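pipeline/complex-builder :: batch 7 item 3
reading input block
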Amino acid sequence: MGRYILRRLLQMIPVFIGTTLIIFLMVYALPGDPVKALFGDKAADPATVLRLKHQFGLDKPLLEQYWTYLTNLVQGDLGTSFSQRPVTDILTDAIPVTIRLSLVAFAIEIVLGIGLGMLAGLKRGKLVDQLVLVVTLVVIAIPVFVLGYVAQSVLGNELHLIDPTVNDSNDLSQLLLPGIVLASVSLAYVSRLTRTSIAENIRADYIRTAIAKGMPKRRVVGIHLMRNSLIPVVTFLGTDLGALMGGAIVTEGIFNVQGIGNTLYRAVLQADGPLVVGLVTFLVVVYLVASLLVDLLYAVLDPRIRYV
Amino acid sequence: MTTNETPANVPEPAAGKGAPLLEVRDLHVEFHTRDGVVNAINGVNYSVSAGETLAVLGESGSGKSVTAQAIMGILDMPPGKIPKGEIFFRGDDMLRMSDEERRKIRGSKLAMIFQDALSALNPVLSVGYQLGEMFRVHQGLSRKDAKAKSIELMDRVRIPAAKARVNDYPHQFSGGMRQRIMIAMALALEPDLIIADEPTTALDVTVQAQIMDLLAELQREYNMGLILITHDLGVVADVADKIAVMYAGRIVENAPVHELYKRPAHPYTRGLLDSIPRLDQKGQELYAIKGLPPNLQHIPAGCAFNPRCTMAQDVCRTDVPVLHQVTERDGAELPGRGSACHFWKETIHG
């Protein structure tokens, strides 16, 4: 186990270098001069441009810039945004917001997704099952931004049930609607996955054994069935936690949540290279850690899996 | 025959001395599928007493496992349905009991051993957990006490190093050891009756013998009734007291074990016995009953076996034979023998 984790951690290094290098190259290969863009419509003063370029190291060859970025990163320095703020400062502001939103979405996803999936799987072919299938299909088919704007304008602007935008990200009730919107698609996948998994396992021999042992129904379902059926679901949930944190760009944009997604969106618009690279670096790490945790969790859930 | 070993805490009208532990009467089971009704069981009668072993013999699809599932109450209903019949266990008709009453009997008084222990055991729970569950659910024991009992049980079915292996998972055991765990699980609460559904089919021949010996030994020790479902005539001979041969959802012959081997009274039984490979017939072609078992959606009119029977006459194609009491040539009753063949006399007496 220990050796497995060590190997996985070592494997992360090339993955990390590869992904960040690609992002780095893409950001700096973008057409247009980001420094000149800082001046907006005003004419750029050539001397200032040169000074800024030097300050951000943009006058050096690309690979050298990447090397500087990597060496700074090892020392915990993600560089400075074009707005002159250190990227780490921006991250420490945005991360807690995104984590809060992700956790709200994640909780909704787990409770509703698994709940609906169980209901549908146990009542396969019945009305509840059909209903869950249709609703989840619709949710999967509708793009998130449509769902987000519709929810915002109906519940927020028309019915005034909620604030259309999030003013205070510490207030979990304000994060509820963005959370639901963010969770919606994953929630639909989780219910479908749970449903299929349950419907498959309910016919398994060991379920018959559990019934033959005289186990009460709640134990047959709650322990014997769920313990097996949730293995693929937990795997999905694990990787999805990473996706929720990085994938909130649209949702955070609609509801004006000042998290990672929104910050990244603005950084891309402003061609703020150091900030984009810094944010993406953070997301890459989140993904890598999440996928390692999922793989480790897998062994806890299914003893047949051994790490070598 | 022995008396019922434990005084029951509920009054048992029919469970006196010698009364059967389990009695199945005119049991019918059908499955309602999209393609129509499958008549899996068409009037089965059998009984088992304490300390007795009944072997139920038949090909796949003969209804031997479905009968067992109906007795255990683990049939999938729907699509399964029991339109007719009674299953008396210690004098009470289990088909009239509430789900909760039946659940309490399952596992504690009536236990089942399945064929393929690898798939019948839960892959993600340790064997100790799965054994301990019996004590925790049925007797309300604590986790710790249940675990101690599980180790005891594993010792009893002779799993080496039980204490060290109690937390292992099913896939970490060999096939024979897994089947021992299944047996331990069935044995946990010292039930009155165990149904073993092809307990050795998935095992090597040498392991088969060990498992059968263990089962027979434990049965003697606890004076349990045992229903042994099998298609293997070899397994039956050593352990069974009596045999019921099933075909197309009916019992076609029943008899004390050695009588059946010596003098079958049904052409189907004779066909089965003739198809056992024998050393003294080395080099000769092996006998096989021609044809295939009937489609249970369209069971042939008359005797279900008639299309495959070498002795079939017109009456066999029109009249369903009842289970006749089999007698000696001189009319003396042969106890416990029955044959559902119009020509049982010709079959047994030649």
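note: The longest helix of chain A spans residues 87-122.
queue -> next item
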